[in-house]
Amino acid sequence: MIENHQDSSSKNGDNLSQENFVIEAKGLRKMYGPHLALDDVNLSIPSGAIGILGPNGAGKSTLFKCLLGLIGTTSGEGTVLGYDIKTEGEKIRSRIGYMPEYNALDSGLIAIDQVRYCGELLGMNSKVAAQRAHEVLEYVGLKEQRYRKIETFSTGMLQATKLACALIHDPDILICDEPTNGLDKRARKFMLKTLKRTVQQGNRTVLMSSHVMDDVQEVCDRIVLIHKGKIVVQRSIGELVNQVEREIEIMIWGGASKMEESLISKNLSVRRLGRIIRIKIEDEETIKKVLESAVESEVQIRQLKEYEPDLEDIFLLIMDKLGSEIKGSSELMTPDHKGGF
Ligand SMILES: Nc1ncnc2c1ncn2[C@@H]1O[C@H](COP(=O)(O)OP(=O)(O)O)[C@@H](O)[C@H]1O
Ligand SMILES: [Mg+2]
């Protein structure tokens, strides 16, 4: 199936940069007529699992198509596995599996033929492609359905078939454009698990785009945040988490407002969500002050723990630091159908 690549760098192009970034871009711009879709994009992506986050219309799909050499860029330069995106698109595509956003399948075909056909289009010999098609369809959970016509497939099965097509030639990098779009809970979970397995056990680099933070958080160790064609953040999630101020989270019983007032009177920074209060950890005195406040306001603390920030918190912090015009993650992450096409 997806064998572990012990040393994936050994297969890489001769002209990989010293830092071993698998993808690099410098000053990349893409105009569709007068519309600027990518604006001065600079990227340095190491191997691993990378989430490309941004709302509809941000430029995620355009970025993928430019990196794959499928569409020309207006200016700037880029390399993928050391190959030039302007002149070596074919070489890039032979090493990258691309799962496009929209349905690219032939509904009249049975799954096994569709996947084999994708392999043949990539130059694989038909016998090898046929054998691989069985393996990859099993890998994506479609072993039982491989002789069924694609027109009978659910959205989850269509996405899985697209993933199988992307994996047919055993690529070094997998690029998935909105892989969880339209999936129900079970199919989504399976898709994310398969992508995670491809990174962790198969040792491949996976780039997945999404407008849903949770999906990215589940699979990726780095994020690239793109907004209106500009990269606003590219960092490891670990580094971003470390930037978020630590908080204590308490769940209380009774008198939440009184407790809140008492905490504020002790100069603590407080965020209240009903019976849950989060208090910024200033120093070692903070917990003591919280316990004192509970006594003073006669409330019972049901639970006290250090709050683990999630991507949502991180996002708010980033935007705060950037002083962006965006007010909340919902504005950035909720699908904005005006931006689609
Ligand atoms: N082929 C195209 N022709 C004209 N405009 C396009 C085309 N493809 C995308 N766009 C525009 O470019 C912007 C970025 O689109 P896209 O890359 O699809 O964003 P995302 O994948 O983040 O939703 C959007 O404003 C979109 O309307
Ligand atoms: Mg898109």
Written account of the structure:
The protein folds into two domains: 8-241, Rossmann fold; 245-307, YebC, transcriptional regulation domain (Alpha-Beta Plaits). The strands form three sheets. It has a six-stranded mixed beta sheet, with helices on both faces. A four-stranded antiparallel beta sheet has the order 2-1-4-5, covered by helices on one side. The longest helix is centred in the middle third of the chain and has 16 residues, at 185-200. Helices cover 36% and strands 25% of the residues. It is elongated, with a radius of gyration of 24 Å. A hairpin with a 2-residue loop joins strand 12 and strand 13 (276-280). By secondary structure, it is α/β, with parallel strands linked by helices. Adenosine-5'-diphosphate (ADP) binds at residues 32, 35, 37, 54, 56-62, 339, 341.
What's the architecture of the largest domain in CATH terms?
3-Layer(aba) Sandwich
Gross morphology: elongated
What percentage of residues falls in helices of 4 or more residues?
A: 25-40%
Element-by-element helix/strand order = EEEHEEHEHHHEHEHEEHEHEEHEHH
Largest sheet, strands/sense/barrel: 6 strands, mixed
Structural classification = alpha/beta
Taking all Cα atoms into account, the compactness measure Rg is 24 Å
Features:
341 residues; alpha/beta; Rossmann fold; Alpha-Beta Plaits; 2 domains; four-stranded antiparallel sheet; disordered C terminus; binds adenosine-5'-diphosphate
